[in-house]
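Repro:
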Amino acid sequence: MFNILTLNKISDCGTSLFDKDNYIVSDSSDSPDGIMVRSASMHDMEPPSSLLAIARAGAGVNNIPLDKCSAAGIVVFNTPGANANAVKELVIAGLLISSRRVISAVDWAKTLKGKGDEVAKLVEKGKSQFAGPEIKGKALGVIGLGAIGVLVANAAKRLGMEVYGYDPYLSVKAAWGVSSSIHHSSSLEQIYEKCDYITVHVPLTPETKCMLNADAFAMMPEGVRILNFSRAELVNGDDMLAALADGKVAAYVVDFPTDDMLGVENVIAIPHLGASTPESEDNCAEMAAHELIEYLEYGNIINSVNFPTVEVPRTTDTRLCVLHRNIPNMLSRISGLVSATGANIESMANRSKNDYAYTILDVVGDVSDDCIEKIQDIDGVIRVRKIR
C-alpha cells in the first residue's frame, strides 16, 4: 500500500487514477511514499525517510528544494506541456491588451458611471487616449521554445506576426513542433534588436536571472512591449521601471506581480493566471499521477527534473532500482553484487543526468536483503529499491 500526500487541492482527474486497493490519498500523512503539490512551498519541510517521489502539478519547481531531494534520493517530477495551452492563450491575450491599452480603457470607462446621456459623447471624445497598434505585421521575439514557447510562436504567426525564436537548447521534440515559417535567431541580440514585442519562456536559473536588464533594453527599439509569463526574477525590476519611465518599454505584462510593479503606469500585472484553467489543472493532475504510479509501481522515471529519464518494460518478477551518483565503476560494482548471489541479470538500463544517475536491473532469481544492504553501502549509492 502506497501513501500519497497532497499539499494543495489536486484535481480529482488525477487523484482518481490511484487504485484504491493500492493507494491511500490524503492531505495528511506522516509517512508518504509520494507527494503531489502545486504551489505550496516545500523549502521549510523536512522530507520523511519514507518519501520516494514528489510530483509537481505544473512546470516550475522553484517551490521544491531540488538539491535536498536529490541528495536524499527523492525523485522530483514536473508536468511539462500539461498547462502549455492555457499559458499560450493568456500570452496571446497579453499581446493584445499590451497593444490596445484595453485595461486602462476599461478602467477609464468605469469612471463615466452616472453621466447618463453624456456617456456616449464622452466615450467618443476620450477614446483616442487609449489608441494602440495592431499586432499584425509586427515582429515578436520568443525567447525559449519549450512546450509553451512553441505554441506561442505558432499562434502569433497565424495572427499575422513576424516571429523570431531563440533557444540554444531546443529539443528535437520541440523542433518538430515549430512552424517552418518561424525565423531562427542565433542570439538574444538578434531578438532584442529586431522585435517590437518580446515574450520570455525560460526557467529561472543563475544564468537567466535578470536577463532582461538595462543592457538588454538598450538594444531594443523604442516602445518595445515585453511579456513575462515565466518568473518575475527574469527581469531586473529597477531597470524595467527606468525603461518604462523613459518610454523605452511601452508596456510590461507580467504574470508574477511584485510590489514594485503594482500600480505602475503601463505595467499590466496579472495575478499568476497562466495555468489557472480547469483544463490545465486536470491535465497537470493526470500527468503527475501517472508519473508517480510509473515510478512507485514500476520504477520508471518520466519527466524528472533531478534524475534521468529511464523507462523500460518489466521483463522479470524482480526489479532493482538504484539511484546513485554519476561516478565511474558504479555499474560493475552493483551488477557484481547481484551476480554473486546467483541471480541472473536479464536486462539492465542506466542513464545519467548531471551529477546523478539511475540504474534499473531486471533479475531472475532471489535478491536477498543482505545483497540490497551491500549495494546500499557502495560509496555513491543513494537509494535502492526492490520491486516485486
